Amino acid sequence: MGAAERVVRAAPGRQTGGVTAGVQAAVAARVPGAAALGLLAPPSAVAVPAALLADADWTSARLAALGARYASDDRRVLATVWWYSASSVLLTPVLAGLVTGRPLSARLADTSVALLAGGTLVAATSSAPGGDTAAELRDALAEVVDVVAAAGRMRARPLWAIAADSLANRLLALGRALGEERRVTALAAPLAAAVGPPLPVPRYVDVAGVRFTRRVSCCLLYRLPPEPLCTSCPRRPAAEREVLLEDTAARMR
């Protein structure tokens, strides 16, 4: 059995029901650096159903584990940091399918996520062709955002903003990998508009010839010391952010 057809199973008692990587493998084969982008799970990772992301008990356990790692009991911060990472992983397969012309399902029921031993999400796998991408994304995001908001004892709207930034970031990364940055990032606004409110429309900014996501959300990672503010954080003064992005652009060229 080849790697493309290998069945990835969850831990005992929480199996994915035989999800295969075959459908997504055709997409991953078209994307340089697919593994680094989270389209191929590392052999050491454990696959679980993506539906667990919308499970209240499972999500609370993930936040508790994150809190233990950072010695924090701020549920809002922990939920925000968790979702900033999880949303990026969850969105990658459907966006990769979109940009390569081989649509993949965004439905939680058709998706598995891969976790490392410490509980970090590193990849996601869609096991079915896509249908209505915007509708599937709307439903999947709504299911998970509501659960994460409840677990974090916070409003849902900031989590939707994080999803918009994750969508923008993933399309930017995929565009760079494919060498088609402008074409791929141009998909962000119409896709978000089709998903509809409360998902904000993603934005980009070009600095010194390099495109970056113009973020509308804060990941709150700086609230978990010793993490600093992100370079593109909207909490930074605009002038300071511009200087930092110019420096980053210079190092990327």
Which strand order spans the largest sheet, edge to edge or round the barrel? 1-2-3
Task: List the domain count as a whole number.
Answer: 1
Principal-axis shape: globular
Total beta-strand segments:
5
Order of helices and strands: HEHHEEHHHHEEH
Largest beta-sheet details: 3 strands, antiparallel
> What's the mean pLDDT score?
86
> What is the structural class?
mainly alpha
Q: Could you characterize the architecture of this molecule?
A:
With 253 residues, the protein is mainly alpha-helical. It has one domain (3-252). It is 47% helix and 9% strand. The chain contains 8 helices and 5 strands, in the order αβααββααααββα. It has helices spanning 22-28, 56-70, 75-100, 133-152, 157-178, 181-185, 188-195, 238-252, and strands at 46-49, 111-115, 121-126, 204-207, 210-213. A hairpin with a 5-residue loop joins β2 and β3 (121-126). α2 (56-70) crosses α3 and α2 (56-70) packs across α4 (133-152). It starts with 21 loop residues before the first helix and ends with a helix. Residues 1-19 have low confidence and may be disordered. Pfam families: FhuF_C. It comes from Geodermatophilus obscurus (strain ATCC 25078 / DSM 43160 / JCM 3152 / CCUG 61914 / KCC A-0152 / KCTC 9177 / NBRC 13315 / NRRL B-3577 / G-20). GO terms for molecular function: 2 iron, 2 sulfur cluster binding.
